[in-house]
Amino acid sequence: MNQRWITVALFVESFLLYGLGLGIAKYLGTTIFWDRVWVGIGWMVCLQFGGLLLFKNFSKTQAFKNNGQPKPSPFSVEFFLAIAAFASLASITVLMIANGLFTLEVVWVTIVGILVTLVGAKVIRMVEVERFREIVLSFGMAVLIPWFAFLLQTGETHRLLPMITLPIMALRMTMILSYQLSTYASDLSLKNPTLMVRIGWQNGMALHNLLILFAFVLIAFGNVLGVPLSVGMPPMTALLVGSWQIWTMRRIAQGVKPNWRGLVWGGAALYGLVIYLYAYSFWIR
Questions:
Q1: Per-residue pLDDT at 56
Q2: Model's pTM, two decimal places?
Q3: I need a labelling partner for 165 at 20 to 30 A (CA). Which of 16, 124, 140, 231 fits?
Q4: Quick one: 71 exposed, middle or buried, by C-beta within 10 A (0-12, 13-18, 19+)?
């Protein structure tokens, strides 16, 4: 998939997850303050742009190194644009502090969000962190963004947040694994240490299927532990797509010619559908 489309998909995903957090706040009776919504979106977009530009700068430098070419200047166009994005982020942060939006919970979420972004941009590089890079990034997207949107409106956490976001995080991991399986051969030849390469394609396929089952078990448990059935049942219908993904993976493991496009889009559809069904259910009630 073209890198440009991956970037577009990342921002679409971010807005959907932000809308989910707002939907949970609305469902719980919180009045939505739209000035806080736009400030939060601006903060999130600046952070993500900064991270993406730093990653692009790192990738360009690494490509020169791998090709045996002289190391380019670190002060590239991407680097200066990243500095501008982080300067804007700092300005929005000051605005949020001035308006009393930084509760202790918001502070923790923003600090962790910045650390996750720096890990994704490979500014922070530790062996222990690199082993769990996909998990860290999935946590940053699927968990932190809805929490951030919710906390800016309410100022405090709620038990619904982990019940909703943890299965979504598991499904994001399955989406990543389905994509990485489609690029497994090239990643292996280029020595690109994706999660699928690190654990092996057989273990990766098994993990993909287990994560789908785990996600829907969490959704079902959420329905038992306090998520209203009117909200928790619609996402269960996505199990049909999940079952298709598991069946597709099993067929590939048995040697059937894979339909890579169907596998990758199926993983994205499963992840996006669960987010949409949760968000829609919260917003209409």
A1: 87
A2: 0.92
A3: 124
A4: exposed
Whether the Cβ atoms of residue 232 and residue 223 lie closer than 8 Å to each other: yes
Confidence of residue 149 (pLDDT cuts 50, 70, 90): very high
Residue 172's pLDDT is what?
A: 97
Residues 230 and 236: their CA atoms lie apart, in Å, by 11
Quick one: what percent of the chain has pLDDT higher than 70?
A: 92
3-state secondary structure the chain: CCHHHHHHHHHHHHHHHHHHHHHHHHHCCCCCCHHHHHHHHHHHHHHHHHHHHHHHHHHHHHHHHHCCCCCCCCCCHHHHHHHHHHHHHHHHHHHHHHCCCCCHHHHHHHHHHHHHHHHHCCCCCCHHHHCCHHHHHHHHHHHHHHHHHHHHHHCCCCCHHHHHHHHHHHHHHHHHHHHHHHCHHHHHHCCCCCHHHHHCHHHHHHHHHHHHHHHHHHHHHHHHHCCCHHHHHHHHCCHHHHHHHHHHHHHHHCCCCCCHHHHHHHHHHHHHHHHHHHHHHHHCC
pLDDT of residue 64: 55
User: What pLDDT does 76 receive?
Assistant: 77
d(Cα 229, Cα 242) in Å, to the nearest integer? 20
The model's pLDDT over 206-246, given as tens digits with 9 standing for 90+, comes to 999 999 999 999 999 999 998 999 999 999 999 999 999 99
Task: Determine the angle formed by the axes of helices 3-27 and 145-154, rounding to 10 degrees.
Answer: 40
Contact at 8 Å (CB) between 172 and 209? no
Domain residue spans of the chain: 1-157, 159-285
Whole-angstrom Cα distance, residue 108 to residue 147? Answer: 11
